[in-house]
Amino acid sequence: MAEKRIAVLVSGGGTNLQALIDAQGRGELGGGVLAAVLSSRADAYALERAEKAGIPGYVVARKDYPSPQAMTIALVEKLKALSIDLVVLAGFMHILTEEMVEAFPNAILNVHPALIPSFCGKGAYGLHVHEMALSYGVKVTGATVHFVNEEADGGPIVLQKAVEIREGDTPEILQRRVMEEAEWKLLPQAVSLFCQDKLAVEGRHVHILP
Ligand code: GAR
Predict the structure, then answer these.
(1) What residues are designated binding site?
(2) Which residues are listed under the site Raises pKa of active site His (predicted)?
(3) Are strands 108-112 and 86-89 parallel, antiparallel or unpaired?
């Protein structure tokens, strides 16, 4: 099996990136290699995490491009130049246009902090997602790792994990619990499965091969 080169796209703190770095350190990325971190912000703490781990970091800032499409095309060019096999969106706060999906069909994973199809789509990102879950009054939320297609948060689901909501939760407390109990486990697991060629996509369904 050829080694897979992974790029992680980030915009903020990068705790999911850290979970991937730690998993790689334990030899748990299924042979995949974290080859690059691309940030939409020059001041993202995720870039410091990358540097500490010896992973090359790059900035592709939205403000440097006239449109989301121009930004997406710049990202695709960079990813192709780096010979990337798998793109991971880990707290990447921009919706990419179709050029990304065309360049990396079934090779982009996103982590979303809710049980899709709840609390997802345009405008559902970061802390807002947890605010939405709390104000709706659901008793269970969670995280989802899915392949990215042309629809926001609409691609085939790879892994999901439920997390309970407790009395007195704030969006911040809930966000932390969802990260600890679900996101930081699911994302490295999904990346590892991809890198071992164990994910087979059939329409909306992702089969996990033995
Ligand atoms: C994570 O909770 C991630 O699931 C979410 O943003 C946070 C980023 O944290 N992503 C989305 O909401 C995408 N729709 P991190 O930078 O510490 O990984």
Answers:
(1) 14-16, 110
(2) 153
(3) parallel
Q: Say yes or no: CB of residue 91 within 6 Å of ligand 1.
A: yes
Tokens of 97: 């246009």
In sequence order, what are the residues at sequence separation of 6 or more whose Cβ sits closer than 8 angstroms to the Cβ of residue 18?
Answer: 49, 184
**pLDDT value for 1:** 74
Task: Provide CB contacts within 8 A for 108, sequence distance 6+.
Answer: 86, 87, 88, 89, 100, 101, 147, 148, 155
Q: Does the beta carbon of 189 lie inside 6 Å of ligand 1?
A: no
Ligand 1 neighbourhood includes 15 CB (under 6 angstroms): yes
Per-residue pLDDT tens digits for 172-200: 999 999 999 999 999 999 999 999 999 99
pLDDT digits (tens, 9 = 90+) for 66-88: 999 999 999 999 999 999 999 99
CATH number, domain of 149, equals 3.40.50.170
Q: Which atom of ligand 1 is nearest to the CA of 175?
A: 2
Domain count within the chain: 1
Please state whether the predicted TM-score (pTM) of the whole model is above 0.90: yes
Question: What are the residue ranges of helices labelled H in the chain?
Answer: 15-25, 45-52, 68-81, 98-103, 127-136, 171-178, 184-195
Separation of CA 75 and ligand 1 centre (Å): 19
Closest atom of ligand 1 to CA, residue 183: 4
